[in-house]
Amino acid sequence: MGLSALTPPKSQDAVHETLLEFHDNRLLIDLCGEFDRNLAQIEHKLDVQIVRRGNMLSVMGTGSTRGRAASVLQDLYSKLEAGREIEPGDIDGMIRMGETPAEKGLPGDQMEMFRGGDVEIKTRKKLIEPRTEAQKAYVQNLFKNEMAFGIGPAGTGKTYLAVAVGVNMLINGHVDKIILSRPAVEAGERLGFLPGTQDEKVDPYMQPLYDALNDFIPAKQLAKMKEEKTIEIAPLAFMRGRTLSRAFVVLDEAQNSTTMQMKMFLTRLGEGSRMVITGDRSQVDLPRGVPSGLRDAERILAGVPNIAFNYFTSKDVVRHPLVAAIIEAYESDEAQ
């Protein structure tokens, strides 16, 4: 792997030190980050001290945190050896979630996306790597099942990963089109009071889906795909009466669908299609007394073959560490 861990003699155990040797100095520079900011982040999160000595890193701290820091450094170095970059959220995700065993059981050409325990989704612009165990299980279920639900708080990558898998399946010829939808439910504002045409009024509700697509497909190709209807983004109400065949279909913000809307959407599934439903049960914007279609779908469809339910918690938040803390604070308040 290009590095080795040197275990100190027993006489040195009292100093609580683990030595890691890295054989590629160029990669070691990337591992440390500009002005050693990656090392500083690990030191702060795990309460350890990391000192560079030539091509070695000395990790000092208590047994459990020292071992965890050494494991994170080795995992990050392995990413660099594989030709991938270290992104800001990688370190925090590794620290919070730990190592993940190899994913197995995927058919055909999808197996290569699960190498050595790493789950990778190839898109036109970038390689996407789920960072937590729940995210990895979610992505695996998206490939294995015709219908999958992703349920959990904001910032856990439910929609982002679903769109990435959709793009991957489109460019590999598994589906002919991507259809992204969400309910156009107001969170305080009235849709009719917004300026502009119907499309201009609806577009703000669809913006998170546009943002995800822009991350995976070059702008010119995306514009062409939208013009050719290879990629469609539309409000949930526009799905009525359609049969969606050989399509990767995502319903985002599903907690804001009614029971009838959810049933209508789920029954649009056609031959050769995959369907993903994402939502956050804590952010329902429906009028008081109107039940959420997402909650009813969980209850009614539990145990139905080829439907996977995936659940996320604040530990799976990858936007910013503070987002996880905010979600945990609200959950704690609601529990009191």
From TrEMBL:
Subcellular location: Cytoplasm
Domain of life assignment: Bacteria
Gene3D superfamilies (alphabetical): P-loop containing nucleotide triphosphate hydrolases
InterPro entries: P-loop_NTPase, PhoH, PhoH2-like
Gene Ontology CC annotations of this record: cytosol
GO molecular function, one term: ATP binding
Entry keyword set: ATP-binding, Cytoplasm, Nucleotide-binding
Coiled-coil annotated spans: none
Chief place of localization: cytoplasm
UniProt domain PhoH-like protein: residue ranges: 128-331
Keyword ATP-binding among UniProt keywords: yes
Family to which the UniProt record says this protein belongs: Belongs to the PhoH family.
UniProt protein name: PhoH-like protein
Organism: Celeribacter halophilus
Upper taxonomic lineage: Bacteria, Pseudomonadati, Pseudomonadota, Alphaproteobacteria, Rhodobacterales
